[in-house]
Specification:
single chain; 8 helices; 4 strands
């Protein structure tokens, strides 16, 4: 896989056999594309979650909120959140694609179909998927900062040297970047 806009795209050889050039590769269940954008992974996660949600819709005849909520949390949502800190979507189209699954699920609940989405998730005690991703990211940064994670804080973040932190010593410095790939990287 050749990464980068200015990549020379050399042909690599191993034991006199040229290596196959690919545009995407799946590693530990996450699909990485050569442009490093999460769109393809979002499409695959959407497809898996959609199949699981369709299975629930077709096979469950007693559709009470508590039963459907447990099934959604155990069978559907893991597809949308698996390793999401590595491929978190940053384009609105990708965020909306994933959120459509939860929209569809909340409309399956009897008595909630006519309500607006925000009211449906509020009545079910759910958060939007974007809120869950943000919370997971914040928890991960906190664990790294406190040394509770195997990933080192200093490998991803630098603390701000600004004196205007109002006595808060844990302000993270924002890096300057030109490309979306770096701008929306986990740090």
């Amino acid at each position: 896989m050749h990464l980068g806009a200015r990549n020379a795209q050399h042909t690599y050889v191993m034991e006199s056999q040229p290596l196959e050039v690919v545009t995407e590769e799946k590693d530990l269940g996450v699909t990485v594309c050569n442009n490093l954008k999460p769109a393809r992974q979002c499409q695959l996660a959407y497809a898996k979650a959609s199949k699981a949600l369709g299975l629930i819709s077709r096979t469950i005849s007693f559709k009470s909120a508590s039963v459907l909520l447990k099934l959604y949390k155990s069978l559907v949502r893991p597809h949308l959140e698996y390793c999401v800190s590595a491929w978190s979507p940053y384009y609105e189209k990708d965020k909306f694609l994933l959120e459509r699954i939860q929209h569809r699920f909340t409309r399956m609940i009897p008595g909630l179909k006519k309500l607006p989405y925000k009211e449906r998730i509020q009545q079910l005690g759910l958060w939007t998927l974007e809120e869950r991703r943000n919370r997971a990211d914040l928890l991960q940064v906190f664990q790294m900062y406190k040394g509770l994670s195997s990933a080192k804080f200093s490998d991803f973040y630098t603390l701000s040297t600004s004196l205007t932190t109002r006595r808060h010593t844990a302000k993270i410095a924002k890096c300057r970047c030109h490309l979306d790939i770096r701008r929306f990287f986990c740090s």
